[in-house]
Amino acid sequence: MICRKNRLKHVLMLLVIGFSGFVHAQPTTIRVLLITGGHDYNQQEFNRMFDSLPGPVSYKIAELPAAFALFEPKHRHEYDVIVFYHMWQTITAEQESTMADCILQGKPLVVLHHSICAFDDWDEYRHIIGGKYFHRPDTVDNIVLPVSSYEHDVNISIHVKDLSHPVTKGMDDFVLWDETYDDFYVEPGVIPLLTTDNPGSSPVIGWTKEYGQARVVTLQSGHDTPTFRNSNYRKLLWQAILWVHQHK
After folding, report:
1. Is residue 61 within 8 Å of 89, Cβ to Cβ?
2. SS3 for 92?
3. How far apart are CA 75 and CA 113, in angstroms?
4. Cα–Cα distance between 29 and 27 in angstroms, integer?
5. Which residues are bridge partners to 82 per DSSP?
6. Tell me: the pLDDT tens digits for 153-193?
7. Could you tell me if 175 and 156 are in contact, meaning their C-beta atoms sit under 8 angstroms apart?
8. What are phi and psi of 166, to 5 degrees?
9. Could you read off the pLDDT of 4-59 as tens digits, one per residue?
10. Domain 27-246 annotated CATH 3.40.1190.10
11. What does the DSSP 8-state code read for residue 130?
12. If phi over 0 gives left and psi between -120 and 50 gives alpha, with beta otherwise, what is residue 141?
């Protein structure tokens, strides 16, 4: 009887340990803070793209300027990853400092499309995201750069430059019906992920970098519904969110 009790106790302990390990192994929901504002877009289709992401993810949409408050230290525990899909321009010195510090201290960031065109007068922003669209001629590192340009509704052939990177792993070259940006700035030292030979586009259209303790992924594409519905873009977005989050 004693031996049977011991065996039963041993089996129960194994079950408890196994169950505890199973619970611990369950994926954690990635809470995305999605920053918008400064431009119109198809919100329904954009939200459907986020609803379609295959992993455990939730998202909260916050529109600028009210969203600036969420970068303050007291709110940073409320989300895990920031996604920029805004084209906001007006920002105070205090808001600049708070936003930059949030990312510098390790809050990961994914930057989409219009957000490359934001904050014309904030130089540090281009260092955070690794690029900038110029609405007027500007000087970077003593080099005068021209006004950037764009073209709507273009078939863009996209080359996956780094097949081994977690953001682009398992992807082949693909085509997007999207909007090109040309003559925009890409910071030296970023790691290129996506390129194009489209004559109306700058060649590097997707990259990653680090800003302080945070991973940053910037994707030039992402203008409208055809891109939101594209399975390759959805995969790229999900793998970018997952990868920047894993650095925490």
Report:
1. no
2. coil
3. 26
4. 6
5. 33, 109
6. 999 999 999 999 999 999 999 999 999 999 999 999 999 99
7. yes
8. -55, -30
9. 444 544 434 433 334 333 333 346 899 999 999 999 999 999 999 999 999 899 99
10. no
11. S
12. left
* Contact by Cβ (8 Å): 244, 108: yes
Query: What tokens appear for 25 in the block?
Result: 């192994």
Pairwise CA distance, residues 39 & 46, whole Å: 13
Q: What is the DSSP letter of 197?
A: -
What are the two backbone dihedrals, phi and then psi, of residue 165, each rounded to the nearest 5 degrees? -75, 140
- What pLDDT shows up at residue 139? 87
Report field, pTM of the whole predicted structure over 0.90: no
d(CA 43, CA 233): 17
| Domain spans, the chain | 27-246
The CA distance from 21 to 23, in Å, is 5
**Tokens (6 digits) for 109:** 């960031």
Per-residue pLDDT tens over the stretch 225-237: 999 999 999 999 9
Query: Which residues neighbour 211 within 8 Å (Cβ) at sequence distance 6 or greater?
Result: 103, 104, 109, 127, 128
For 188-200, write each residue's pLDDT tens digit: 999 999 999 999 9
In whole angstroms, what is the distance from residue 97 CA to residue 231 CA?
Answer: 37
- Identify which of 91, 178, 181 has the alpha carbon closest to the alpha carbon of residue 133: 181
Q: Is the peptide bond before 199 cis (omega within 30 degrees of 0)?
A: no
Residue 29 structure tokens: 């929901």
